[in-house]
Amino acid sequence: MPYWTRKAAGALATLWLASVAVFLLLRLAPGDPVSAALGAEADQEQRDHLGRQLGVDRPLPVQYLTWLGGLLGGDPGLSFHYREPVTRMIGQSLGSTLQLALAAGLLMLVLGLLLGAALAAERRGRLARALDPLTTAVLALPVYVTAVLFVFVFAVLLRVLPAGGEKDLFTAPDLALQYLALPAVALALPGSVVLARLLATELRRTRQEEFVLTAIAKGAPPRRILLRHVLPNSLAPFCVEFGITLGELLGGAVVAEQLFARHGLGQLLLDAINQRDYPVAQTLIMLAVAVAVTVQLGSELLVGRLDPRIARAGTGEGR
Amino acid sequence: MSEAARLPGLPRRGFLGLSAGAALLAAGCRSATDPEAGAAPGGTAAASAPDLQIVYGSAPDPTQLLHRGPDTPAFVNLVLDRLVDLDPATLQPVPWLATSWEWSADRLKLVLKLREDVTFHDGHALEADDVVFSLVGATKSSQVKPLLERLADVKASARNEVTLTLAKPTSNLFDALAFNPVVDARTYVEGRASDTVNGTGPFGWRSFKGGNQLDLVRNERYWQSGRPRFERITVRSVTSSQAALSALQSGQGHLIGAVPGRDLKVLAGNPGFTVQSAKASYQQAFLGVNVASKPFDDLRVRQALQYAVDRERIVAQVYGGHAEASSLPWPSNTPGVTPDQVTRYRHDPEKARGLLREAGAEGARVPLTAANSPVFSSLVELVKFDLEQAGFGVDVQLLDNAAIQPKIQQGTLEGLFVANHGMVSVSPLSGITVSGPLQVGRNTSHVTDPAYADLQARAFAAADEQARADVNHELSEYLLAQSFHITLAHAWETYAFASSVRDVSTSALGYLKLTDTRRDA
Amino acid sequence: MSTTTAVGGSRRPALPAALRGRRGRTGAVLVALVVLLGLLGPLLLSADPYQQGREALAGPSWEHPLGTDEVGRDLLARALYGVRIELLVCLLAVPAAAVLGTLLGLLGGLNRLLGEAVQRLFDLLLGFHGLLLGLAIALIVRPGLGSVVVTVVLSALPAFGRQARAALLAQLARDHVVAARVLGVPRGRTLRRYVLPNVTDAATALLAVAMAHAAKIEGGLSVLGFGIQPPTPSLGTMINTGSKYLFLHPGYALAPVLLLGLLVFGLTLLADSFNREKLR
């Protein structure tokens, strides 16, 4: 089997496993949607009525297949809580999260590359030397700390950027970017530092490799050495880590949304879990898993291209 | 290599560039921190702002307005009206949609006259049929359904007159009338309320987006002429109190509510903001006791709990002072309640330890269950510490709301539990009739004493104010003596708003009333 | 991928060597300092981290050097006890994940079927990375130290497992390993001699990053209310609660930030110096 089909089949298997896990997970959790919707004062009659309406009285396999079928057909059903199509609810919150993730992902990539190159520099000025502990310090500061500091400085003291909330990127791009600035930077910083450090390590390592030393000995200009020889050969682990970090960024987005009062998918998920709104929660978690699996797959395929040894090693395994 | 060596300056420049870009955006185009940003130009007089931005600390849930579940938000009252209002000082009914009412001599029939100048947001006039529809709906699905159990018949006796017939005399019928909203009989569908809200309140329901943002617009035909003063109100739910406070401090939100009292401390002494407590609330936190589980079958152990908890410290440290320490579940201005009852149990760890020793229950390990929310987990922290000081061993279990609700509904909570309950602040009778933890006959504490049911029957039958006050007093004595329900504090609904916001008032249950409210532009 | 240098018998033990450099020493001193603070600090203090009082959010005093928290507990005592919890989460759970993940990864490298199964498990865990996993676990078992430790172990597993597998595959393909096999060196010995050292090197290099990550998972979960539950002190919950009072009582959040920062800083320096030593 070629490298990529094997990887894709693996990803599909992972997704199916995840769908079973997600479905069971929510039902294993104590509590149920009926109790969550009705207060402590509801009687059994009210509970039974709502239970029948929501379909939670049916056997679990039936519920699972109904949901899975709907999900594959693009319609995972109605929210238990708001009785609205899940797709519509996700649609309303998707933009917010997508904008944040894209902004933060882009920032992370750019900062990661620049910082990484700076950290790996051999002749280091005072600034470069200061960068090292600085990046380490940033690494030690989690999103929820940077978020609080940013809000205090930029929103409360200086009042140049809003503390939280959001605007639509398409109808009011100028405002939307201002709302995005703080959460995107807070979210991107730790990841970009991780990437930078990894890249720096790889750059230093690659620089010691024989072909680079040969190139230097042959008198190739430094720019050419960096761009043609060192960078391409250092990028594979960087790409893998970028994939993983992007996935983590989505998780961090849940925290950032909480702290910056953005109503994205993370908030929707937390609400859905609290209300035991199974269709919404299941679909959202599957969405997150699907994104992570896809990013993972993508970065693996990319690595396979950048460093064919890995693809070959992979197919050759188990001989 | 030199290429890389030159790079170090870049990231910093990049970052500066980013902030500069943001600053440019702020200078060049509109700024998101400008209070009016994003608002359409309004045609109102310059002195008064056309809009109010509310940030509310709990998620709005407009799905079941007639049911009025635990999360039905306070701002439903901005959109919907009720038949009567309660006077915050005396808790007596005052006219609202009903202008006057008359009891029959046997107190089995009530005739309500409705205002004639009331129209729904969609323009059709309020009729007696709408009131009948809303009341009948409430008898089927409302949280306060038990209050309406004695209601035998509701009918529209004229275009603007409704006649209620009772099976037995009921002294607290008005509690239900003051609580349940009047909805439009022709469009309302329970469960899909957010699409179909058509009310008579000062603000019309425009949209409810993503389970999070509620947009309201001025009701041009509101029956209180010249009111309300805002063209539109936006309610955003922000569950992190820190984010809510940042919104207020940065000028993006004008008014915040449902933020834990102690988190409002950061605003203290800041002249730019007002913190206003309603001195009332619909929900109260309590420490419940399952009297069927050991060692709480022993009255002395339950009384030890009363002396062990430090209510003053709870008021200060959990609610930031926006609460009242009390030994009774109902407010201290309830007719018949005396000051010595309110302060019956004072913090006295020595006495608690003594009672526990006497009962031979020293060091008993007891489970303490609570919902996992910021306020409850800090309540639990304090209660656990206080109980341990008195000689209990406490095992805490925090569950999320969906997990604790079935336990409350099925009465399967063991030992102790910290939770909220509603309706007690309206009247003692309504409290013990509706509120799960106190409900006569079916309560989370497993109290089955016939004396308790007897008191409820007497309260229902109380024909006049004096009789009601007398039975309230006795009911208070009974709860204090039995100690199966430990009141911790009466937490007040507290709002914080920019000083430019004026005339914010609140109802007898602490809900916002924004009819007269205005904001300086 | 970063495991291509150590060759056969000439390999120097990297860890002690890493401690010889200035970076390594600084890192080791910092980590040791925080560990000592966590282990010995509470013994030297008289204050009880669980003792509440009426003096809430008080400023620094002789009795409470860092002041008190919102229910009147001594902040210094809580921060030092919080370090212990952090050590549990970082220094015990992560190495446990490293050992478990590496073993799983190696196991998967030896048998094709097993390899696929392990690979699926890792993919699944990566799909539910960090916070999502923490939410799920806290939903089923009650949230607290246990659920946080389980989350940290599970979310760190795949990284170690995959690295081990990659190192294994890379080594098995190397000439000297192939040669050793051809020469009839027993498989177990080949593994012990050539593969394992490289795999442990790779795992050690990952440790610091994974530990820093663990600290973030702990704190992030506490922001969402699914982390270590009060009254147990943890640096993450302290930072989270303290940041509410950042301007009223800055020491509340800054003390745990400092402790956590020193720990992660030290760990990162150690990992760095270790990486560099390997490259030499």
TrEMBL record, chain A:
Which UniProt keywords are given for this protein, alphabetically ordered? Answer: Cell membrane, Membrane, Transmembrane, Transmembrane helix, Transport
Q: Which residues cross the membrane?
A: 98-121, 133-157, 177-200
Q: Where is the ABC transmembrane type-1 domain?
A: 94-297
Q: Which Gene3D superfamilies match?
A: MetI-like
* Localization per record: Cell membrane
Per the record, the domain of life is: Bacteria
Q: What coarse category fits the chief subcellular location reported for this protein?
A: membrane
Q: How does it sit in the membrane?
A: Multi-pass membrane protein
Q: Where is the signal peptide?
A: none
Q: Which PANTHER family match?
A: DIPEPTIDE TRANSPORT SYSTEM PERMEASE PROTEIN DPPB-RELATED
The similarity comment for this entry is:
Belongs to the binding-protein-dependent transport system permease family.
Question: What protein is this chain from?
Answer: ABC transporter permease
Organism equals Kitasatospora putterlickiae
UniProtKB/TrEMBL annotation, chain B:
**Main location, first listed in the record:** other
Pfam families in alphabetical order: SBP_bac_5
Domain (Solute-binding protein family) spans: 92-415
Q: Does the keyword Signal apply?
A: yes
The transmembrane segments are none
Q: Where in the cell is it found?
A: Cell envelope
Q: Does the keyword Ligase apply?
A: no
UniProt keywords (A-Z) are: Signal, Transport
Query: What is stated as this protein's family in its record?
Result: Belongs to the bacterial solute-binding protein 5 family.
PANTHER family (alphabetical)? PERIPLASMIC BINDING COMPONENT OF ABC TRANSPORTER, PERIPLASMIC OLIGOPEPTIDE-BINDING PROTEIN-RELATED
> How is this protein named in the record?
ABC transporter substrate-binding protein
Give the originating organism.
Answer: Kitasatospora putterlickiae
State the organism's lineage: Bacteria, Bacillati, Actinomycetota, Actinomycetes, Kitasatosporales
TrEMBL record, chain C:
Q: Which PROSITE patterns match?
A: ABC_TM1 (PS50928)
Which cell locations does it reside in?
A: Cell membrane
The principal localisation class reads membrane
Instruction: Report the residue ranges that make up the ABC transmembrane type-1 domain in this protein.
Output: 83-271
- Highest taxon of the source? Bacteria
InterPro entries reported for this sequence: BP-dependent_transpt_permease, MetI-like, MetI-like_sf
Q: Which Pfam families match?
A: BPD_transp_1
Ranges annotated as spanning the membrane: 27-45, 85-109, 121-141, 252-271
Name the CDD domains on file: TM_PBP2 (cd06261)
Q: Does the keyword Nuclease apply?
A: no
Q: Which UniProt keywords apply?
A: Cell membrane, Membrane, Transmembrane, Transmembrane helix, Transport
- Membrane-related topology note: Multi-pass membrane protein
Which PANTHER family does UniProt cross-reference here?
Answer: OLIGOPEPTIDE TRANSPORT SYSTEM PERMEASE PROTEIN APPC, PEPTIDE ABC TRANSPORTER PERMEASE PROTEIN
Q: Which family does it belong to?
A: Belongs to the binding-protein-dependent transport system permease family.
Query: What protein is this chain from?
Result: ABC transporter permease
